[in-house]
Amino acid sequence: MRKRGLAVTCTLLLACLGIPLGSAQAAPGAPFKLPYPAGSAYTITQTPGSGYSHNDDYNRHAVDFAMPTGTPIVASAAGTVHFEGWSTGGGIMALIDHGDNLCSQYAHLSSTVVNAGGRVAQGQRIGTSGATGNATGPHLHWNLVHCDSWRSRAIPNTVETGTSYPTGYAPVSQNGGQTLRPDGERVSDFSGDGAADVLGVDASGSLLYYPNNGFKLSAPTRIGQGWGAFKHVMAADWSGDGAADVLGVDASGSLLYYPNNGFKLSAPTRIGQGWGAFKHV
């Protein structure tokens, strides 16, 4: 009776603390980690095999996490970007190829910061969550699929939870890139993944962003125009959020600050003037 009473007391304590009964067990050494940054926790709203929408050939092993639009999404394991773009149903989506026709799938994103063919490291930011495609609200749809057919292949085996994803459980991620930035320097890391990217102004005045994915520059994206009149352009993490912002001195000598929010430059703020006489910034 004492043992049964102790078990009931422990069960009630777990419930009062908001810890779901039957929570997933960690699996040290598993090949994958959760698809959001270390220290974050998001509630599982659909588990593999759920009768709502995770019961067909394309979704039977998928896990859904409720999270606000704009939440950073990171690679569960290292690999090559197999697909990035719009998909029917899945909205903005990324697939990362881990070899042997196995891809991790990240669907309903609001944006991506990777390009097909680029290498990514485990924990590298690949985009932000959203509600694009067939989604009833902001969340991440995460799955392991066959790269060639996109059919669901296996339940992700993660360090944090193994292959158990109880609905209502909010597992804490260990998927961090802290070791990529041991000195804390964020001078030109525009994407926030721990590796320096490249910004350049071409002859037409276009400001071009070249992502550094797996220590290889990907195809550029134009993130600004009319930059031919700028005397100086530089990148630095001026706001302290882990991603490089942009500072520029235009032809009139104004020092302009362009915040990098969600990997997109926002409207500039003039934070200085008379900078036209400066030779170096």
Describe, in plain words, how this protein is organized in 3D:
The chain starts with a helix and ends in a 9-residue tail after the last strand. It has one helix spanning 2-16, and strands spanning 44-46, 63-66, 72-74, 79-87, 91-97, 102-112, 119-120, 125-129, 139-146, 152-154, 198-201, 207-210, 221-224, 232-236, 245-249, 255-258, 269-272. The strands form three sheets. Strands 1, 2, 3, 4, 5, 6, 7, 8, 9 and 10 form a ten-stranded antiparallel β-sheet that branches. A four-stranded antiparallel β-sheet has the order 14-15-16-17, with no helix packed on it. Strands 11-12-13 form a three-stranded antiparallel β-sheet, with no helix packed on it. The protein is mostly beta strands and 281 residues long. The protein contains one helix and 17 strands. The longest helix is centred in the first third of the chain and has 15 residues, at 2-16.
Give helix and strand order, one letter per element, not per position.
Answer: HEEEEEEEEEEEEEEEEE
Q: How much of the sequence is in beta strands?
A: 25-35%
Low-confidence spans: 1-22, 178-185
Determine Rg (CA atoms, Å). 22 Å
**Given the structure, what is the number of helices?**
1
The helix fraction, in percent, is under 10%
